[in-house]
Amino acid sequence: MHTYPTQAVILAGGQGSRLRPYTDDRPKPMVEIPGTGTPIIGHQLSWLAAEGVTDAVVSCGHLADVLQEWLASAALPLRVITVVETEPLGRGGGLKHAAARLPDPSQPWYATNGDIWTRFSLREMAAFHAERDATATLALARPRIPWGAVETDAFGHITDFIESPPSPYLINAGVYVFAPAFTSLLPDRGDHERTTFPGLARERHLAGYPLPHGAYWRAIDTAKDLTEAAKELGAARPQGA
User: Fold this and answer.
1) Mind telling me which InterPro entries this protein's record contains (predicted)?
2) pLDDT at position 241
C-alpha cells in the first residue's frame, strides 16, 4: 500500500515579466484567472488539499509581502508557511531552501511551479512514482502548438490544415513528486534541471508521468494564457452555472 505525500512546496518567487501589467503590483501566482475571483495560488492550494496535502511551504521572492498578506487573510484549506529568498538562489537552490521547512523530511513530497493551472490525480502520480522506486517524478504534458499546422503528402501537396494541434513532444509540466533523498541532491544555488535531473536520468532514477488523457493543464505565462484559461473554464462550466 502506498503512502501518499501530505506535504508540498510551491515555487512562487518568479517576477512574471511577460505577464505585465498584471504583475506590476503582485507576484505571478497572485494573478487572478478572469471570472474566478481567486489567484492562481489559491486554486493550487485547494487542489493540493483535495489530494490529501496538509502542509505547504510557499517559496516567495518578487513582491513577497503581497503574497504573504493574502495568505495571512485567506481561509486556507491546509497549513501554509512561507519562506523568502533574500538573494536569488536559482530554481534548484530555491527548492532546497523551501524543502528545509517541510514538516517531515523523512517523507516524500510534492512540488509545483506557482504559475501552473491544472487538475489531475496527484495520488495516482505518487503511486506511479512509488512503483518505479524513483527519486524524482515529473508530470509530463503535451501542450497545443499555438499555430496552425500544415500536413503535406510525399510529393509536397498540402493535404490538410490543423488548428493548434497537440505538440509531438512531451514537456515538463511543472508538477513533481520527490523522494526524501531528493532534497540532499539539490544544489545550494543554481538550476536542478541542469544538474540534479540529468544525473538522476543517467542512473534511471528519474520518472516521467504523462498527464491522463483529458486532464486540464496550462502554464500561465502571458496575458493570452489568462484569456485562454478563462475561455476554457467558461466552456467547461455547465449551462446556468
Assistant:
1) Mannose-1P_guanyltransferase (IPR050486), NTP_transferase_dom (IPR005835), Nucleotide-diphossugar_trans (IPR029044)
2) 37
